[in-house]
Amino acid sequence: MAHETVICTYRVRAGEEGTFQDLLRRHWATLRRLGLVTEQEALVFRGLEEGLTYVEIFTWAEGGFGRAHEHPDVLEVWEAMDRLLEEREGRARWEFPHFEQLSLG
Predict the structure, then answer these.
(1) CA distance 21 to 27
(2) In the prediction, which pLDDT does 30 show?
(3) What does the domain layout of the chain look like in residue ranges?
(4) Beta partners for 10?
(5) CATH number for region 18-97
(6) Distance CA 6, CA 57 (A)
């Protein structure tokens, strides 16, 4: 199975940005420590439009996606993050589409 890249979108509640950023740092550190993601560091973006939105892009290591959903350290971070997010404009509080990289050359 090829490595899957995930583009996570988080819609953060007003007043929770600092706490969320701390959890986002912990999220990446936890995934790396457990070997669930590749060596390539995550890309993180903060939206400029109204309403606080973050995007985190990283690539799962082989089998990392499945193992992450079973590991208590990861689940603890995800549960804490969930409490800081909100649905906005009919969109879910967080989204996780997975992609595979293509070469068009």
Answers:
(1) 10
(2) 97
(3) 18-97
(4) 54, 94
(5) 3.30.70
(6) 6
Amino acid identity of residue 76, one-letter, is E
Nearest to 93 by CA among 82, 78, 79: 82
Q: How far apart are CA 51 and CA 35, in angstroms?
A: 33
The pLDDT value given to residue 1: 47
3-class secondary structure per residue, 43-74: EEEECCCCCEEEEEEEEECCCHHHHHCCCHHH
Q: Which residues of the chain have pLDDT under 70?
A: 1-2
Q: Per the structure block, which two tokens stand in for 47? A: 């939206």
Per the structure block, which two tokens stand in for 37? 């993601």
Whole-angstrom distance, CA of residue 75 vs CA of residue 68 = 8
pLDDT (0 to 100) of residue 2 = 60
Give pLDDT, residue 65.
Answer: 93
Amino acid letter for position 37: V
